[in-house]
Design brief:
By secondary structure, the chain is an alpha+beta fold. It folds into 2 domains: 9-148, Thiol Ester Dehydrase, Chain A, CATH 3.10.129.10; 174-288, Hotdog Thioesterase (Thiol Ester Dehydrase, Chain A, Roll), CATH 3.10.129. The protein contains 6 helices and 10 strands; from the N terminus they run H-E-H-H-E-E-E-E-E-H-H-H-E-E-E-E. It has helices at residues 9-14, 26-35, 45-51, 184-188, 201-206, 216-231; strands at residues 18-24, 85-94, 102-115, 122-132, 138-148, 174-179, 239-246, 255-263, 266-273, 279-288. A 10-stranded antiparallel beta sheet has the order 1-3-4-5-2-7-10-9-8-6.
């Protein structure tokens, strides 16, 4: 039996900030929006603003695919067992309306690492900021929790992790059903994440799935779409932040139902599948403006 990899805590904690310059054009903003289902109804002019170059606006979660230093934690010296890594949590905070074209500087760093113990995995917390190259203005902050299931027990700190945002016990104030197209993962992967898990049936079966699955960040964007549509009137300037936990995979072609509870400017939400009743994104929290 192969010995488990030992996570290199000191190396990860001391890694310098990784910078990545990313220039994006109107096609990139439109491709992202198409990849999360915008434009499904060609007569919906509210969605057209995100998928057509006339009066184009960036969809609020577009920044999640920008400014990422490719494979920055994937070299062997980190000791991360990437076969057993899953995306645990994700958050996005917008500091100002995001442009549909431009150049950003992404700065990524490791914020914290928590050892959950042998056989229980490790949590790697990272942060990425996006600044406008021309003006230096901070545009967005993105935080991610990576669950390294195969790296627990490396001798690192074992502390309590932040509690998940609670979902209200009352019935949802709003519900929005959005379909996913069968080819959605094939479109979304063109934004940069070309993991064969989202395209090759044989690869998906080897990973334990009956067919390719949708990207978690596509599910993230679909939940944001439900909030933007239901509570913001499709106005991206009213969308301020979104966060939550991934809890189950989506197969392209399934319908995602986002349940929302609004308390002032805070929206609690979760997303489930209509066909299978599985919750795919949980403990969601978004902030919107009036």
């Amino acid at each position: 039996m192969t010995a488990p990899l030992k996570l290199n805590y000191e190396l990860l904690k001391s890694m310098p900030v990784q910078e990545a310059e990313h220039t994006f054009v109107d096609k990139d903003a439109m491709l992202y929006a198409l990849g999360i289902g915008l434009g499904y109804d060609p007569m919906n002019e509210d969605e057209l603003r995100f998928v057509y170059e006339k009066n184009l606006e960036a969809f609020p979660t577009f920044p999640v695919v920008l400014g990422y230093p490719r494979k920055w934690l994937r070299h062997g010296e980190t000791g991360i067992d990437w076969v057993k890594v899953v995306h645990g949590e994700h958050s996005l905070e917008l500091h100002r309306p995001f442009p549909a074209t431009g150049t950003v500087i992404g700065c990524s760093r490791v914020v914290d690492i928590v050892d959950k113990g042998a056989g229980k995995g490790a949590l790697i917390y990272t942060e990425r900021t996006l600044t406008d190259k021309a003006s230096g203005a901070l545009l967005a902050s993105i935080r991610q929790t990576t669950f390294a299931r195969g790296n627990g027990g490396f001798g690192g700190p074992q502390r309590e992790t932040p509690a998940a945002h609670p979902i209200p016990v009352r019935a949802p104030d709003h519900v929005c059903d959005l379909p996913t197209r069968p080819e959605m993962a094939l479109i979304y992967r063109l934004n940069g994440d070309r993991n064969p898990l989202h395209a090759e049936p044989d690869f998906a079966r080897a990973a334990g799935f009956p067919r390719p699955i949708l990207h978690g960040l596509a599910t993230f964007g679909i939940a944001a779409h439900a909030i933007l549509k239901t509570l913001c009137g499709y106005d991206p300037a009213r969308f301020r932040s979104i966060a939550g936990r991934f809890s189950a995979p989506v197969f392209p072609g399934e319908t995602i139902r986002t349940e929302m509870w609004r308390d002032g400017n805070v929206v609690s939400f979760r997303a489930r599948l209509v066909e299978r009743e599985a919750i795919v994104f949980n403990n969601g929290r978004a902030e919107i403006a009036d």
